[in-house]
Amino acid sequence: MIFVCKYRKKLLVSRQISDDIKQFSYEICQRHSVIVRYMETDKDHIYYMIETEPTMSISKIINLMKSYTTYHIWKRYPQ
User: Fold this and answer.
1) Taking the CB of residue 77, how many other CB atoms lie within 10 A of it?
2) Locate the Transposase IS200-like domain: which residues (predicted)?
């Protein structure tokens, strides 16, 4: 999966923000038994390779990951 920043803004240039997104992604995946095989950030997008049970839909995983990481990043970096 590839998640892109809104309007392709270069928001992930900061190492701290990139590391926080990775941390939040691992947290939410662990809670829902999703295994992250690979994750990497670039300036305006994030790559994920994940593994999950067939009972969990991809759309549900995407929704969980995007909402959780967005909420916590906005909370930590309100600007």
Assistant:
1) 12
2) 2-79
Q: What's the token pair of residue 23?
A: 């941390």
CB under 8 A, 24+ apart: contacts of 57-63: 58/1, 61/32, 61/34, 62/1, 62/3
Residue 40 phi, psi (nearest 5)? -150, 145
Domain 2-76 has CATH 2.60.120.10: no
Tokens in use for 67? 């909402």
Q: Any residues with CB less than 8 A from the CB of 79 and at least 6 apart, and which?
A: none
Model pLDDT for residues 22-47, shown as the tens digit of each residue: 999 999 999 999 999 999 988 888 99
- Radius of gyration over every alpha carbon of the chain, rounded to an integer in angstroms: 12
Say how many residues make up the chain.
Answer: 79
Question: What three-state secondary structure class fits 68?
Answer: helix
